[in-house]
Each structure stands twice: as structure tokens, then as C-alpha cells.
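Following up on my earlier thread - several people asked me to post the actual chain instead of describing it. Fair enough. Here it is, all 392 residues.
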Amino acid sequence: MNTSILSQNIQDFITQNSGAPITKLALQKNPFPETDWILILNQIEAKSKAKDKLPTWFATENIIYPSKISVEQTSSEKTAAYKASLISGESLIDLTGGFGVDDYYFSKKFKNIAHCEINEDLSAIVKHNFEQLKVGNCVCYADDSANVLKESNQKWDWIYIDPSRRNDAKGKVFMLKDCLPNVQESLDFYFEKTDSILIKTAPLLDISAGLSELKFVKNIHIIALENEVKELLFEIHNHYQGEITIKTANILKQKTETFEFVLGDSVFPFYHLPQKYVYEPNSAIMKSGGFDEVSVVFDIHKLHKHSHLYTSDELIDFPGRTFEIQKVIPYSKNEMKTELANQQANLTTRNFPDTVENIRKKWKIKNGGNLYCFFTTDKNDNKIVLICRKIT
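Reply from S.P.:
Thanks for posting it. Predicted structure:
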């Protein structure tokens, strides 16, 4: 860890230039020849990335940032705060500490935190930053977490782990065994040190794939930020054999939309032709696969088994987007020419044989405006278009 960047002049320069184009700054002469110019530029770029994602770090003096990639890959403060609200206790050990954002928020819920980070430089940065952030209950270990666990006689209330995907793992779908550390392989060892484990995985991990590799899963948490799924969490408790609950959260500026259901319960959704309103679930619910449960919990109708759009005559508060249907037309040449050709509209397809791109091209529909159109299939297997105005 290079501490020369902590000099007041350099810190002032970093703050003043936060948000400035790095390519322009890189062409300037280094005003601090005693410190590596690339290092200073990296600090400016990483701090710029942190402005919205990590406002506490951004607003705190004398913070040292790792590479901009580390900042991009770390949890946002909003998702870290929500995650910390899920668990609590006396002690937690984070086996893959990284930049320490999760542990900053865990430190507010636990008396003692251990941050394990095998990268010595990053571990030193986190230790320094925690001092600036007034985190006094976290010990940083610059070591492999397996060694820390082996050498410790402590029984932890929780183990938290965010395994990283190996570079050689191919394709979009991957398994936990493709990650480091290999959680599946180490699970029995972890349970010698705790009874409760929270595992963060990439949002693209298939839920059923995760369940096939893990045991004793009690809860699965799906966390979205502004309708983009960011984290998938598996909460496991030693010897747990009960039902598995899926809990979704979509963190928005003014509120957090939540929804939960028991995995595998038999539910019987309602179906109906389009009524006055149509609802599109948020991305966390879409990831959960609880489409039938949405119909039953909110007492609204599905348009079709595979459309994942819902309708009602009475307006309800719904975790997702809500639209008022102005017109329903069959997807036909004459109707499209009359209603939508050469218009401006926001298009969405759900259970429909064509893509948005092709529909736009075919009917010369420009993107944007106040009109929202859903190209979908109704309960009678008819291809239809819902022409709507957005409510929320």
C-alpha cells in the first residue's frame, strides 16, 4: 500500500479532479513527481466510480482505493446495508473480504467481524479505510481464509462468503464448484466453525443449480437495485431440513419492494383476458420464478401460463411496473398498420414469437414516448398487443 497519496496536496488534487476524464488528465504532466502518476490517476478514477455506489467512502477523507475494477466488482452500499439487515449476532467471519463494503455494514450488526483477504495490499487498504470510517470492531487478516479458520478455535455465529468465479469457467451458466473457494467442497469444514453460512453468488447463477450443490438451505434472497438483479444469496443452517423460502427485494430510491414465497408449494393461479390494468413484476421476482405465487398472493390474473404479465380491474400496489390498458388489439397486419405503424412507443415482448428489434423494424416504430406496448399471448393462445400508459 503506497501511503504517499495520503499527502494533503495529493488528496486535494484527487478530490478536485474526481469525475474528470482520465484520458485528458493522463496527458498532463504529473504535478507530484515524487508519487507515481498512474497511481494518482487510478485513485481519481476509482473515487469517481465510488461517488454513487459508495457515497460513505466518497465523502470520507483519506480513503485509499484499490483498482477501479475492485470498486466496480464490490457490493454497493445499498445492497450491503440490506444484506446486513438479514442476519445478526456476536461474531461473523468474511472469508472473501475484498474492499470491505459488506463488512462495514455487518460491523453495525455484529460485535466482532473478521475480514479475510489473501491480497496483502488490499487487506492493508481495508484496514486503513476502516480506521478512517471509525470501524473499531473488525480485524483484518491478510491470509487465505482457510488458514485463518484452521488456526482459530473460535466458533462463529456466521460465515459470509462471496466466492469468485474462476477465470477458466466458460459460458453464462456456471456452478459453485467453478468458483474459489469451492464452497461445496469445503462445506463440512465450514460447519465445524459455524452453524450458519451466508453465500453470495453472481445473479446469473441458476437457483436450481445452486440448490443442487448445497445442503441445509433455509432461505434464498434475491436482491435487485433499481430493478437490476445484483445478488443471489443462499442462507444455510447446519442440519436444517425444512421448507425453503425465496425472498426478493428490489431496492428503489423511495422504497424497497419485497415479495416472498415457499419454494415448491402447490399454488393455482388465476387466468383472465386483459382487464383494466396490467402488471409487470420487478426483476427480482422474475429471477425467483414465483410467477404463479404472484397471482395468488396479490389476487390478480395471469394473462397466460408463460407470459408472466398480470391483470386486474381494480388498481393494486404491485412490486413492479403498473400500466393502464388503453386498447387491446390482435397482432395482425391491419391492426398494426392502423394503431402503431410509424409511431413512437416503448415496446416489451413477453411470451411472443418475435423480438422487439424485429417489431420496430417491421412496423417502423421509434423508441420512447409515453406509449407502452406489450406484445404477448393471452390465455386463449392468441397473439395480442396491449397499448398502455404507465402509472408506476
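The two ends are 47 Å apart (CA to CA). That should answer part of your original question.
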